[in-house]
Amino acid sequence: MGKPDTPSNCTEKCETPSGACMQKYETPFGNCIRSFDGPVIGYDPFPQIQAGGIDRSSPVRDLLLADGDKYLRLPYPVITANDYMRFVRTGDREEFEKKFFSRRHKLCALVAAELADGTGKYLGEIIDGIYCICEETTWVLPAHNTYVRDTPQLILPDASRPILDLFACETGALLSMAYYLLKKELDSVSELIFKHIYGMVSERIIIPYLNDHFWWMGCGDEPMCNWTPWCTQNVLLAVSLLPFDEDMRMQAIRQAAYSLDCFIKDYGEDGCCDEGAQYYRHAGLCMFHCIDILNAMTGDAFAGLFNMPKIRNIASYIVNVRIGGDYYVNLADCSAKAGRMGVREYLFGRACGLGALTAAAAEDFYSELSSGDVFSDESLKLNLYCRMLTVRYCDEVLRFHEAEGGRNIVPAGDIFYPSVGLMVARSERFVMAAKAGDNADNHNHNDTGSFILFMDGRPLFVDIGVETYSKKTFSEDRYDIWTMQSGYHNLPTISGLDQMAGSVYLATSVCCDLEGPQKEISMHIEKAYPLPDGPCGNTYIRSICLDAASETFILTDTSDYQDVVLNFITYDEMKPSDMPGTYLLGASSVTFSGASLTAMETLPIVDARLKLAWDRDLYRIRLKMESGQFTMKVAPAPFQQSFASISVQYVDSPSSYISNVPTTVNSSPSEG
């Protein structure tokens, strides 16, 4: 199911970084450790903020105070055992996670507001939040409460045997940051506050990390995902900000280096994130923070990694898949609106010397600051370290933006990522992306051969994304969910069959050409389907071309299969124009040959997570292939065209075709 991400705990530690299990991979992080012979020190990322508070001239100070005042009026929610058990009993994650994250959002906002205010206004509620979170039986989400990867979750947590998942590690980092930033203020109330934080972080995070093995820590060939750098970043924050001894810190550094080597081994040299743009900030960007923290603890022993081509390519990925504004090329569980860049991306670009990344991130940050949405991103609501990075470096980013002339910098280059099979091509008006590869990506959807198309920054043909996570999302029933199925991507249904998940379901004979004005990718996609081997050796060849000279997108499907239904997911309803054989789709015109239109379905967007990307319903267009070749062309529409009537079957809901359309809503954050 595309390597779903659930935690596990093994009884034995994996091989150490010097073990044989990593000998066939590069170990750049391990190499840094092997050349390091200096003392290990703590981490002091915000000395000026800690000492003097946030300057009144800071452009984000008022935003922090407003956020703090909002949360000051809200109580810390009560969490019950029944809330925790609901996930196993019903599959619902909403009730528990809403309360769990609300507590952490409030504490994060109040600490930042106290640094901005400095009067003690928020201190009482901060202390309540610290104790409220420390008194939780576990910091692990119900959806992650298992000791073996990809096995059923336990209904209740075992407090005597902690599990380290994404949000246990986030919680440890949050409490450590809160004490680091407000040490003087908290100690003036009682030094027992520190004792409580230190004891809980030690018991629930550091001791398990140094003595147990969790799958995301890496073990040879075992595939990793964004959990590895995301958890590692937060463990490093906890062990470096609180006064753990040098030996414990060195153990943590060694384990972190090994884990990060295990993480980047799964990346191609091209640096493509197969989880999509939305997971970049939890994958590549968290890896950047790990390097930064490791550097601080070792006197820059890891600084050379920023010159490593693979790490520079990992950094650049987010710029290469940026469409413009809120939109990104989205794969798998990624949303089309993956979140704007900001200070963190700027710092990654600066460290790697990547001008395009720093410029794009600075432009996005300026836009977010102008709209007042700087701290609305989930990473900044949940992670106090990321929030304070924004506070510390916001002036630098704004000065850089001003020096760049405030240009709205959108990348104009084309790229092909062979490790994932992703092509992104651009013309003056269009951005097109197509995916070859296979159906075994992290957060996989069955989408081999699919494409997306934007014109003038507006979606035309889209990838829906994923609904709110539920118990089914990362289970053997994952592909019962309609958004995961190839029939709800821009792909054919062949002989009544849709694609299946797994590395054996793949594109073959992939050829990509980005030279010249005609940017084209072609591939065989029949192997992505569970089609029987016939005596004739049937094939299905898809060719996707963006002709930048004529501003025309051309899709050509050639096949000797007899029963083919073409599916297209669109942002707008397709309507006929007054020109025969031509349809209007938004501001574009669409013509096709070799197939007949059979149905246009409305795909209701009712799920909260999908609503973050799509402001209204989407559409599925279905065509019956009538010959061995289908061609569709999309170009900017002449302004004089008008709508006409059409006789076609309309379907109001995908439930006519699939049995499972979840309607539960949830505002909890994205996870790995």
Short description:
Helix content is 34%, strand content 18%. It is of the alpha+beta class. The strands form 6 sheets. Strands 13-14-15-16-23-20-19-18 form an 8-stranded antiparallel sheet, with no helix packed on it. Strands 5-6-7-9-10 form a 5-stranded antiparallel sheet, with no helix packed on it.
Give an account of the 3D structure.
This protein is an alpha+beta fold. It is 34% helix and 18% strand. The strands form six sheets. It has an eight-stranded antiparallel β-sheet, with no helix packed on it. Helix 5 (94-117) runs antiparallel to helix 6 (123-134). The longest helix is centred in the N-terminal third of the chain and has 24 residues, at 94-117.
Characteristic terms for this protein:
5-stranded antiparallel sheet, 672 residues, 8-stranded antiparallel sheet, alpha+beta, disordered N terminus, disordered C terminus, 34% helix
Write the layout of secondary structure elements.
Blueprint (H helix, E strand, L loop, with lengths): L8 E2 L17 H7 L12 H6 L8 H12 L8 H10 L3 H24 L5 H12 L31 H16 L1 H7 L2 H20 L1 E2 L12 H15 L4 H19 L19 H15 L10 H12 L1 E3 L2 E2 L14 H10 L2 H17 L6 H5 L1 H20 L11 E3 L4 E5 L3 E6 L2 E2 L11 E5 L2 E4 L30 E3 L7 E5 L1 E6 L4 E7 L15 E8 L4 E8 L4 E7 L4 E2 L5 E4 L2 E6 L1 E9 L4 H4 L6 E8 L3 E8 L12 E3 L21
Parallel strand pairs: 21-24
Antiparallel strand pairs: 1-2, 3-4, 5-6, 6-7, 7-9, 8-12, 9-10, 11-17, 13-14, 14-15, 15-16, 16-23, 17-22, 18-19, 19-20, 20-23, 21-22
Helix pairs in contact: 1-11, 3-5, 5-6, 5-7, 6-9, 7-9, 7-10, 10-11, 10-12, 13-14, 14-15, 15-17
